[in-house]
Amino acid sequence: MCGNRKVHTYSGHLPECPWCARGRLGRFDPFPALPDLAGGGAAGGGAGAGAGAPAAKFPTVLLVVAALLVLALLVVAVATR
């Protein structure tokens, strides 16, 4: 388990946490910090604790993408009549 973020787990044969290494390189963290519903902070702790804000925007982005997809389907349906 990672010493910086408890949501990062990896095999003991690796010299360091590969997920933290990805983050240092500016690459996507597939295990973002999620809000701690009980305490109001970000789960995962450590240096990545402030990374919970982008995760909160995910449902909004998903809704916008879904709305755009529906709009595109409607345009195609009307255009093919």
Automatic annotation (TrEMBL):
Keywords: Membrane, Transmembrane, Transmembrane helix. The chain crosses the membrane at residues 61-80. The keyword Transmembrane helix applies. This is Putative membrane protein.
